[in-house]
Every structure is written in structure tokens, then in C-alpha cells.
Write a structure and sequence with these properties.
With 605 residues, the chain is an alpha+beta fold. 30% of the residues lie in helices and 23% in strands. Among the domains are: 4-109, Nucleic acid-binding proteins (OB fold (Dihydrolipoamide Acetyltransferase, E2P)), CATH 2.40.50.140; 297-418, GAD-like domain (Gyrase A, domain 2, 2-Layer Sandwich), CATH 3.30.1360. It has helices at residues 61-68, 125-130, 132-135, 139-161, 202-210, 248-267, 280-287, 304-310, 313-320, 338-350, 376-386, 401-418, 463-468, 500-509, 514-528, 542-550, 580-586, and strands at 23-36, 39-46, 49-55, 74-83, 98-109, 165-166, 184-186, 194-196, 215-223, 235-244, 277-279, 300-302, 324-330, 355-362, 365-368, 393-399, 431-435, 440-442, 448-450, 480-485, 488-495, 535-541. It binds aspartic acid. Aspartic acid is lined by residues 178, 200, 202, 492-494, 537-539.
């Protein structure tokens, strides 16, 4: 490598025994400095790694400069690569067989005393984010950014090969409902009017299909003003995809090819295609969640019949109230202690199941948390219904369907954790499609809400009833699907409504009257009337995918400049107050808030 203008012949981290004897120019930061045996050793780091530079007293000016070089000083070194003495070889360092004997040392920039060094461990995250430019010098951070780059590069290549084109959609636009609040941008030229930052490019990508683009993608920045939750970012990136003249299987096939490439080029893993598919109902019944982690088994089964015949009063009561009884066999081979079992019961109870109990073998008889009076035959019948093998512990949950399902999910996840069934790294991954979601959910106030978003097509068999205003909309199915990775919802998509009459019927059921629909989505309805092809797509979260592939524990580890958990940008101190003149120009008056949540993390202006 030779760069014109600024001379540098090699990356520091790429020097090897094969370079011995060469005169090289390297540049970077002083990673560490050691004075030893009258010599100064500088570890010089650039983005490729670190190489050792040796400076002797007889090197004159270079020696004086090296002696005074603090860590993170920016230097350029000219010197000769030579082999290290055998006892000085460092097998842990890629360049550990060589070093550079200095000929010239230049100081390009001297840092002030720094709040921390890239070599420091356990630095408080707030400090790291405040000085992210130092934190990014840590090889781990750089590796994560590189992995993310390979991810998006693989996405672009895979979609390009399949004939998709990347189209940018506006980020100053009108609100798109994805279930969160909008971030608003006031308009100076139109006082009192606001742009919204997009929660997703949903409507634009549908209009691109109306516009004949047919295969679109975008690495789209999206913004959602949601309440603070651990590990959520107010702005995030999605791989946004839309295709015309397709069914769900076509979208899924395109995404699978893309994901295969992503796994191959980021973590070198070969995905087996097609990915497994699981219906929403089966996911909930077996795993108690619509985003099951299938890296481990532990599927629940319905033991309602055995429960009805068991004579156990708590189960009889749950069934009499129309509830469900489910059981989970856990291959614990005695590894779960009583305390572990109690913890599993507590995890299940928290989610609202009426009953969570265990049955296990021990000392040649069956023990359970149903109480000493529980007849052994009943316990044995429940175990058999659960399909438990010898030595397996059975967990039984009972209650209203939603609660029983949630309890299965909680008990299953807690059991997997306690049994060490959850692998650490990103591979082998469990990637699957969850399909056949309902079209609607019922909100706390009894109103219908879209399970995905209001542009999701209903299942074919429910279309006539939907258009006729008949049937129970809560039972309507949809053409929505989710992509799930290791227990996380990675992406969500659907075949869309491409007929105005269907879209209007859905709006009606959602309580969005014709006027409101016209006002908010008139442009979409007009578009659908202009000859809309059948179409569908998906959006996949880049940040989450990068996090899982990097084996990182937080989204902040795969974003160059993330917001803190409280939605603040510790680097620039955004959101920040603005000048009164700026507000006046916008025609905005700010009422001082009584209390700003998260203010404790903010710094005073
Ligand atoms: N717009 C949806 C979202 O952001 C994804 C989609 O349906 O394509 O979740």
C-alpha cells in the first residue's frame, strides 16, 4: 500500500516475517509506550492492528520524541522491519515476530490528557459515549463497525443480484402509523405545520410499487418516539424491501437469499435454506411467544384432557373457566434444584398464569408442587400426556389462554437459561419465519388494532367476510410474516392491500372514518386507485442483526454514535434547547416542563 500525498507504505498490523529487511513508513497512534533496558518501545496502532517500534538512545531526536510520547500521540514512523529475538517473539500479536527499528519518528499530533485510553477496561459507558472518538479506537468497536459494513455490503450485493434497486424516500414527510409517536419537525415557511420523521418508509415504498419500480430496497433510517426501554434507539436503520406481483413466498425467498449472504460474509456461516416456517398459532401454543428462540427445543403440549381427568382441583378450576393447561418437559436429569424449580414457577406466575407447577421423579416416586395430596396416578398421567421421558421434569401451567401461553414462554426461557441451553455466540443461529398472524388485535379498551399495520392484506379466505362487514374480525387472518432470529423479531412484513375497497374496509374496522382516512392517507388511496399491482415486502432491523452477529449485548456496541438508554446523545448533548429567536421564527412557544424524565443524565448547558 502506497498512498500518494501522505506517505505510508504499510498498515502497521500487516507486517510479518516476510517484510524483514524492508524500509517501511507506518502511521498511527501510540497504543502503549514502555521504557525497558535503556530503549523505548512504542506500540503503534492503526486500524489494522499494532506493531512494535524500537527506539535507541543513539537514535537522537527520535529517542527524545519517543520518550515524551504519551499514549494516543499521533505519529509517523520510518524504519526497517527486523525479526525479533526468539525470546522477544509475541505469539499473541499478529505482528509479534517482527519490530521496526526506527530511523525517523514524527509527532503529528499531541493529545491533551485523555479521560480514558482505548486500552482501559471497564470504562463507564456514559464516559465512553461522551468521548466516542476515543472509544471507537478500541479494536472491538472497529471490528463491530467492520462487521456492520460487511452486513450492509452483503445486503446490497444480494439484492442487486436479484434485480432490486435502491431508492431513497424522504425523511421529512407525514406521519406513517407504525404504532409509535412521531418526531416532528416544525416548518418555518408554514408556521404551525410540521413534517414528521418517518417511522418507516411504508407508504412511499407502496407508492414506488404503484409507480412501477417493482423491486425496491433501501437502508432506511427510521424514527420512533417511544417510551424508554432498555436497548432501544429512537433512530434506527432497516433493510426496507418491497416487491410487486408477488406472494409471501416470493418475498421470503428473496430475503432468505439475502440472509444467506449476510451470514456467509459476516460470520462465515452457511445457512440452510429454505428456512423453517411456523404458524403464529403454533408458535404461541408450543413456545408461548411469537418470536421463539429455536436454538433449543422445550416445546409445550396441550395436556387439557389429562388435566380434566386428573381430579386436581386447581386444574379443574382453570378448565372450568375456559382456560388451557399446557405442559413442558425439561430434560434436567436432576440438574434443577428446588430453588431452580421455584424460580421457574415464579417466572411463569409473573406472566399471569393461574397455576404453575412441577412434577418430577425422585426416590422411585413422583413428587410435585401440587401438594402432598395429589394422587400419583394423576401426576403420572400428566407426565405421560406431556410426553416426558424418564428423568424429565414436567412443568404444568394453567389459566386463561393468553396467560397460559405467556407462562409457557417465560418458563421455557427461564429453564433454558438455567440449564445452559442458550448458546453464547451468534452461530449456529435459529432463523425462522413466523406466518399467519391475525389481522387484528384487541386493545385494552376493546377497540381493534392492526396486528402489524393497517396496510397488511387479509387472508384470502377472510376477504369476503371483511368486505361484507360480516364475521368476527378478531378471527380474521392476515398475510403477515415475521423473521425471527434467536428469539428476537428481526423483521416484519406482509403482502399489502392493493385494492381501495379492501383498504377502506380495514380502515372502517379500525375506526378510521372516511374523512380521517382521506385526510391522513388520501395520497395512498389515490395511489391504489391509479392501477396498483399486488405487492408485499418486509423491513429488517440492521442494528439488531448486527448486534446478534457481533455477539454484542447492546445495540450501542454496533452503532458509531448511539443515543444513551435515556434517548440522549451524550456526545453532542442532544436534544438541546434552542435560541429564542429560532423558536420565534418557527412560531413556537415552549412551556417549561414540570419535570423532564431522564434529566438526571443530562448535563447542564
Ligand atoms: N413498515 C413495516 C415496519 O417498519 C415493515 C413492513 O411491513 O415492510 O415494521
Amino acid at each position: 500500500m502506497v498512498t500518494e500525498g501522505f506517505r505510508r507504505t504499510h498498515w502497521a498490523g500487516e507486517l510479518r516475517a516476510g517484510h524483514v529487511g524492508e524500509r517501511v513508513w507506518v502511521a498511527g497512534w501510540v497504543h502503549r509506550r514502555r521504557n525497558h533496558g535503556g530503549l523505548v518501545f512504542l506500540d503503534v496502532r492503526d486500524r489494522s492492528g499494532v506493531v512494535q517500534v524500537v527506539v535507541r538512545p543513539e537514535d537522537g531526536e527520535a529517542f527524545a520524541l519517543a520518550e515524551g510520547a504519551r499514549p494516543e500521540t499521533v505519529v509517523r514512523v520510518v524504519g526497517h522491519v527486523r525479526a525479533r529475538a526468539p525470546q522477544a517473539v509475541n505469539p499473541h500479536l499478529a505482528t509479534g515476530e517482527v519490530e521496526i527499528a526506527v530511523e525517523r519518528l514524527e509527532i503529528l499530533s499531541r493529545p491533551d490528557p485523555l479521560p480514558f485510553l482505548p486500552t482501559d477496561r471497564g470504562v463507564d459507558e456514559a464516559v465512553r459515549l461522551r468521548h466516542r472518538y476515543i472509544d471507537l479506537r478500541r479494536p472491538e468497536m472497529l471490528d463491530n463497525l467492520r462487521l456492520r459494513h460487511r452486513l450492509t455490503r452483503a445486503v446490497r450485493r444480494a439484492l442487486d443480484e436479484q434485480g432490486f434497486i435502491e431508492v431513497e424516500t424522504p425523511t421529512m414527510t407525514r406521519s406513517t402509523p407504525e404504532g409509535a409517536r412521531d418526531f416532528l419537525v416544525p416548518s418555518r415557511l408554514w408556521p404551525g405545520r410540521f413534517y414528521a420523521l418517518p417511522q418507516s418508509p411504508q407508504l412511499f415504498k407502496q407508492l414506488l410499487m404503484v409507480g412501477g419500480v417493482e423491486r425496491y430496497y433501501q437502508l432506511a433510517r427510521c424514527y420512533r418516539d417511544e417510551d424508554l426501554r432498555a436497548d432501544r434507539q429512537p433512530e434506527f436503520t432497516q433493510i426496507d424491501v418491497e416487491m410487486a406481483f408477488v406472494e409471501a413466498a416470493d418475498v421470503q425467498a428473496a430475503v432468505e437469499a439475502m440472509m444467506a449472504r449476510v451470514f456467509e460474509e459476516t460470520v462465515g456461516f452457511r445457512l440452510e435454506l429454505p428456512l423453517p416456517r411456523l404458524s403464529w398459532r403454533d408458535a404461541l401454543d408450543r413456545y408461548g411467544t411469537d418470536k421463539p428462540d429455536l436454538r433449543y427445543g422445550l416445546a409445550a403440549v396441550d395436556v387439557g384432557e389429562a388435566a380434566a381427568q386428573s381430579g386436581l382441583p386447581v386444574l379443574a378450576r382453570a378448565l372450568a373457566q375456559g382456560g388451557a393447561v399446557r405442559a413442558l418437559s425439561v430434560p434436567d436429569a436432576g440438574r434443577l434444584s428446588r430453588r431452580d424449580l421455584d424460580a421457574l414457577v415464579a417466572a411463569g406466575r409473573e406472566t399471569g398464569a393461574a397455576v404453575v407447577a412441577w412434577i418430577r421423579e425422585g426416590d422411585g416416586r413422583l413428587g410435585s408442587s401440587f401438594g402432598a395430596a395429589a394422587p400419583e396416578e394423576a401426576l403420572s398421567a400428566l407426565r405421560a400426556a406431556a410426553g416426558a421421558a424418564a428423568g424429565e421434569t414436567v412443568l404444568v401451567v394453567a389459566g386463561p389462554l393468553a396467560g397460559a401461553r405467556a407462562a409457557v414462554g417465560a418458563v421455557r426461557a427461564a429453564a433454558a437459561r438455567r440449564l445452559g441451553l442458550v448458546p453464547e455466540g451468534p452461530t449456529p443461529p435459529a432463523l425462522l419465519w413466523v406466518t399467519d398472524f391475525p389481522l387484528f388485535e384487541v386493545a385494552a379498551d376493546g377497540r381493534l388494532e392492526s396486528a402489524h399495520h393497517p396496510f397488511t392484506a387479509p387472508a384470502d379466505e377472510d376477504l369476503p367476510a371483511l368486505l361484507a362487514g360480516e364475521g368476527d374480525p378478531r378471527a380474521f387472518g392476515s398475510k403477515a410474516y415475521d423473521l425471527v432470529l434467536n428469539g428476537f423479531e428481526l423483521g416484519s412484513g406482509s403482502i399489502r392491500i392493493h385494492r381501495t375497497d379492501v383498504q377502506e374496509a380495514v380502515f372502517r374496522l379500525l375506526g378510521i372514518g372516511p374523512e380521517r382516512a382521506r385526510e391522513r392517507f388520501g395520497f395512498l388511496l389515490d395511489g391504489l386507485r391509479a392501477g396498483a399491482p399486488p405487492h408485499g415486502g418486509i423491513a429488517i432491523g440492521v442494528d439488531r442483526l448486527a448486534m446478534l452477529l457481533a455477539g454484542a449485548s447492546s445495540l450501542r456496541e454496533v452503532l458509531a454514535f448511539p443515543k444513551s438508554a435515556s434517548g440522549l446523545d451524550p456526545l453532542t448533548d442532544a436534544p438541546a434547547a434552542v435560541d429564542p429567536e429560532q423558536l420565534a421564527e418557527l412560531g413556537i412557544e415552549v412551556r417549561p416542563p414540570a419535570a423532564v424524565s431522564g434529566a438526571e443524565e443530562g448535563r447542564s448547558p
